[in-house]
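Protocol step 4 of 6: structure prediction from sequence.
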Amino acid sequence: MESKARITAIGTYVPEKRLANHDLEKMVETNDEWIVQRTGMKERRIASDNEYSSTLAFKAIENLTKRFEKDLSDVDCILVSTTTPDYVFPSVACQIQDYFNIPGTAAFDFNATCAGFTYGLHMANSFITSGLHRKVLVVAAETMSKVTDYTDRTTCILFGDGAAAVLVEKDEEFPSFIAAHISTNGEGGIHVYRTNLSTMMDEKPLNSSGKIVQNGREVYKWASRTVPLGMNTLLNKAELNLDDIDWFVPHSANLRMIESICEKSSFPIEKILTSVEYMGNTSAVSIPLALDIGISEGKLKNGDTLLLYGFGGGLTHAGHIINWNLSKGVSK
């Protein structure tokens, strides 16, 4: 089914507090050179004690409405990707509905971890193209620092906080969505997890600290193998070649992982957009942050063809080829 949906606006927000590599040197046995060499990260943004995923989401949406002069009163669906909601319930989506006083809208959170933004786009496009909805607010919001173990040198160097929002509207003439690929490798779920009610998986005991636990080597191997195959599937669906893609925007998990993906897919590294260097791994937020950085740096322009690819815990992964064509906005 041909898409009838267009991404018309974007907004982002990151907390003011910075956690640089030199700060981490004082917390765990690590150093700036080691972190940069293995991850490409130099700093991340960290939410304050009274900032939560909803707080960051509100500010990202306000950034969107201000820049693109968008009215939210007729939004008929709010989708929020988060692994760190303020509460089990009410959802962050319900908090957004209340904060912006949006009448008559569906609102729910979902969890596809670091693939959450691309999953959210998939749902928004499906809802609009099917005729169920006309205007969908897709939000990614994460406070990863609140679930990070800062005594674990292998994970605490990775994660940062932030939020982003895009508006997806019905537009049959200039749709954004060209092709999509979405899949799951659930057998690898034990390689990156955070416990909740259960402390066992596949009859194996888990670290039940409530903090992120990750087997980085296994996740790296999985992503480096899986994402290039997914990219190829997307290109085949769209009947496009690598040369037709202006920008590749993968989940900013780790710059070395992205370099491996580019090498295995033969995609030129100079045509990637990331948020990893100064934002760290912000889970579902990393792709829209990279898009907005691309806008601010004058790289990403209307008319560009993008390949987005999210991947993460679950193990989930999802990609899109889209035509970037935002509404005319005001200066950021």
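Step 5 (inspection) to follow. The radius of gyration is 19 Å.
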